[in-house]
Write a structure and sequence with these properties.
By secondary structure, this protein is an alpha/beta fold. It has 21 helices and 14 strands. It is 50% helix and 13% strand. The longest helix is centred in the middle third of the chain and has 23 residues, at 220-242.
Length: 551
Amino acid sequence: MTPENLATLVLTAAKSAFESADLDTGLLPQSTTVERPRNPEHGDYASTLCLQLAKKAGKPPREIAQAVAAELGAHAEIASVDVAGPGFLNITLRAEAAGVLAKTIVAEGMDYGRNDSLAGQNLNLEFVSANPVGPIHIGSVRWAAVGDALARVFAASGAQVATEYYFNDAGVQIDAFAQSLLAVARGDEVSESGYQGEYIKDVADTVLAAHPDALESADPAEIFRVHGIEVMFAQIEKSLDDFGVHFDRYFNEKDLHDRGDLTAAVETLREQDRVYEKDGATWLRTTDFGDDKDRVLIKKDGSWTYFAADCAYYRDKRARGFDRCVIMLGADHHGYVGRMKAMAACFGDDPQVNLEILIGQMVNLVRDKEPVKMSKRAGNFLTLEDLVDAVGADAARYALARYSTDSTIELDLDLWTRATNDNPVYYVQYAHARIASLLRNAKELGLDRGDDYEPALLGHVRETDLLKQLAEFPAVVAQAAALREPHRVARYAESLAAAYHRFYDACRVLPRGDEEFTPTGAARLWLVESTRVVLSNSLRMLGVSAPERML
């Protein structure tokens, strides 16, 4: 039985108790939850529903709790219900009710953990979105890992989600990139304001190989700009692809300009009476919705601002049918939130519903307790390739997704390459590989768990602890989606791995020597396989492999 099933049972029992006492069932909530108590002696699960209902019903909470406990205790799945303190319900399940979960998990396989908490939501998730002027740097790598994991969690929670990478090929940064390529191609020094690093020479050489007459052309800077961006962006896509991050769409800002979307966005905003002219420029009245100042859309010289493109891009997403636009940004974009929220309101949208901006903190790499120096290839920052070369894609993804994005993280490269239990990704993957090895051994011995088993046989304290952990997975996924915190899945996977190791150390699964393979052993094989399924599903949501063997 999952916590969600039990919570539904508690609510049903409360409804019956209210009806028997002639109380208004309209006071009952649509849903409720149960929690695992910290002290196992207090039962398998606890509910505070009766405490929440007492004031509304005008009855002492213990009186309500006793009535609900009587109804709940009549169910075959429940071993006992104790009323504790002012009105807590402490619930203990029968062993067979808990044990049957293992078969449910094996039957559902890759679908176990999926839920409908975000059903009906159509989300656009934009992340990374680095301009194509250099390799993906370590800050954007964090968003690549977290964003991809979050997209998986959203989808597992029932949302329709589309991932998107937004980039532009115009502006000051692009101009500096083109001039840097041109300088290197000519054999000149790159200016201090330009881009440094070996990759600049690599890109310049690639452009020259494809366009050998570029330096003699009428506008060599334009050739290096256009084709340099193509080369750089192809490298970015490959880096992300090698990292296991695949976007549903790469969206170029240039398309907005070419289609006239910026003009259309301004006209839409003007229809909302949010646009005005001042000092020869066109402004958006974002201060109407809490921004610290109004924002320029069209400059005095008639050129568009980046903010105007942001407006057009947001309008485009909404026109494509997305109910909620989720954008992931680095810590240096914190000031971006207010103006974007105000912009959504200027379009007539609810910025609390239609637009969500997530801010992530920095990532620092250390080795031997010392900061890792900047990349030779990139020149002035560390890249995705640097991290993957140092620890591997699996460890990099897990490490970056394991922490709340609210916190700055320091990744110890020595830790994440160790084949020891203090390396979190190794610890979880090893648990999966250990299970796979056990299942291979069972097959070699000709042992089969059978088509069915006796769930009541899974009554050992380590078995029940493991079953409780397995039961929590769908709720963990739903919570990770609701809070935008995929690191909860990683921490859950570590707790599950720990519970499995404790179970394995206490409960023999395969017989020794001439020992008979008992029904308890068969039941434990079901539990072992269900654990493998959930570990695999957890790692998959993080974009990390679940190995059958550890090298």
